[in-house]
């Protein structure tokens, strides 16, 4: 079968788009098979998912979108309408959605690119225009539907608590794992934080606690292309997944020009903390900070002191200290690049390379200009100009915005 890389590099290939659903039955189980609703789509949605290091603030960006569907036959009215696909047997809200986008190769075989899993969520809006707009959010949102209280709070680890939360039941009925195709909790078997005093507040949702345990361990939660709930480290993939080339230039790699625009470049100051303060008991704190002397060319000289603070009463003094050290040791200012590309699917945490050198200075072509020219791969001297010069910069993908209508992608990637 042809690979995604081969199809994208070739250009002018056929794309497939498909939306399917699994309805939630009244007995709180999902129907077995996916039901194709592609023919009802009026407008293809845009989807953005983000798990950047701003998640230190507990602000995980769960993907969300809206589906605009043809409702002229009342097929997407609620379960009380006899013409509805949900009539009597199913709940419309929390119906599971799968959106697939990919390529078709020379043998007419689908080559998968994006697979997004979500649920119908929020206030559905119908109109006399015979369409219906159904808010849809990523599967992680279901963790916010239920309180965390009731899960065992005995001594364990962050991994143990995430497993307990994922498997929570009520009256012997599964609450959450039914939404996912499976789970992969700490797949790389990384060292996790011990929780001697694991505790859950009365007002804590399952999502609140998963965010806490993710921050303690410097992990992220996400849903992969197979529909699995994954809770694992933030480390970029070990191998290079893609090379992005911008501007009219021949690069020394196997990829063509595949960037539509370099939209923004920032210094990534918000990624950096010089000090972490963790309150683990009322008025008692664990701290970690960069040792610095003014004029010593430190990051604090350049960016000032940035302090991260959090209350974590379920940690002991030692556990809180490890948490604080983790924040200071794993955050740093590094450039962020936002680019727009054709439909080139990679994943959160993918390791990629970015190239975007300036345009050729035509009036000086094949001339050497001191301080500006450099040797190019074509064995001749050449001058380049332009606002940016990005040459073989390795990055980690931290945010992806898919426009399924225009088949373009907006990436945010962080230099590594």
Mean pLDDT: 86
The total number of structural domains is 4
The percentage of residues in β strands lies in 35-45%
Oligomer: single chain
Largest sheet data = 15 strands, mixed
Uncertain residue segments: 53-58
Number of strand elements: 29
Helix content: 10-25%
How large, in whole angstroms, is the Cα Rg? 25 Å
Number of helices: 5
Describe the overall structure.
- This protein is mainly β.
- It folds into 4 domains: 1-141, no CATH class; 145-234, Baseplate protein-like domains (Phage tail protein beta-alpha-beta fold, 3-Layer(bab) Sandwich); 240-268 and 334-415, no CATH class; 271-330.
- The chain contains 5 helices and 29 strands.
- It has helices at residues 4-10, 158-166, 206-217, 299-303, 317-330; strands at residues 14-25, 35-36, 41-43, 46-50, 61-70, 90-104, 110-120, 125-126, 131-138, 156-157, 169-170, 173-174, 182-185, 194-195, 219-223, 228-233, 240-245, 261-266, 275-281, 284-289, 307-311, 336-342, 351-356, 359-360, 374-375, 381-382, 384-385, 390-403, 408-415.
- It has a 15-stranded mixed beta sheet that branches.
- Strand 28 (390-403) and strand 29 form a beta hairpin.
- Helix 2 (158-166) runs antiparallel to helix 3 (206-217).
- The protein starts with a helix and ends with a strand.
- The model is unreliable at 53-58 (pLDDT under 50).
């Amino acid at each position: 079968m042809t690979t995604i890389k081969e199809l994208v590099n070739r250009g002018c290939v056929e794309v497939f788009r498909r939306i399917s659903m699994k309805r939630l039955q009244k007995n709180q189980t999902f129907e077995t098979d996916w039901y194709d609703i592609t023919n009802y789509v009026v407008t293809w949605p845009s989807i953005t998912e983000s798990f950047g290091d701003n998640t230190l603030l507990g602000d995980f960006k769960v993907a969300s979108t809206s589906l605009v569907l043809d409702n002229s036959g009342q097929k997407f009215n609620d379960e009380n309408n006899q013409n509805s696909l949900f009539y009597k047997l199913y709940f419309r809200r929390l119906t599971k959605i799968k959106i697939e986008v990919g390529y078709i190769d020379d043998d007419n075989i689908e080559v998968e690119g994006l697979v997004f899993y979500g649920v119908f969520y929020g206030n559905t809006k119908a109109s006399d225009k015979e369409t219906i707009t159904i808010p849809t959010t990523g599967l992680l949102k279901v963790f916010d539907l239920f309180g965390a209280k009731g899960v065992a709070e005995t001594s364990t680890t962050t991994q143990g608590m995430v497993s307990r939360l994922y498997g929570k039941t009520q009256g012997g009925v599964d609450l959450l794992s039914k939404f996912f195709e499976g789970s992969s909790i700490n797949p790389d078997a990384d060292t996790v934080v011990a929780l001697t005093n694991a505790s859950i507040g009365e007002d804590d949702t399952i999502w609140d606690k998963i965010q806490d345990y993710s921050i303690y361990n410097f992990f992220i939660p996400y849903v992969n292309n197979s529909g699995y709930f994954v809770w694992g480290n933030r480390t970029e993939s070990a191998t290079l997944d893609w090379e992005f080339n911008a501007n009219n230039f021949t690069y020394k790699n196997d990829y063509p020009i595949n960037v539509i625009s370099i939209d923004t470049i920032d210094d990534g100051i918000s990624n950096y903390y010089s000090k972490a303060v963790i309150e683990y008991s009322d008025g008692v704190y664990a701290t970690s900070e960069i040792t610095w002397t003014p004029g010593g060319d430190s990051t604090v000289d350049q960016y000032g002191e940035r302090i991260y603070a959090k209350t974590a009463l379920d940690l002991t003094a030692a556990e809180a200290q490890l948490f604080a050290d983790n924040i200071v040791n794993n955050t740093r200012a590094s450039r962020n690049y936002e680019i727009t590309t054709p439909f080139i699917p990679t994943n959160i945490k993918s390791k990629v390379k970015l190239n975007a050198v300036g345009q050729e200075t035509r009036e000086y072509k094949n001339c050497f200009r001191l301080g500006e020219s450099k040797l190019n791969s074509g064995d001749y001297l050449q001058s380049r100009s332009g606002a940016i010069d990005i040459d073989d910069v390795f990055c980690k993908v931290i945010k992806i915005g898919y426009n399924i209508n225009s088949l373009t992608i907006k990436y945010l990637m962080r230099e590594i």
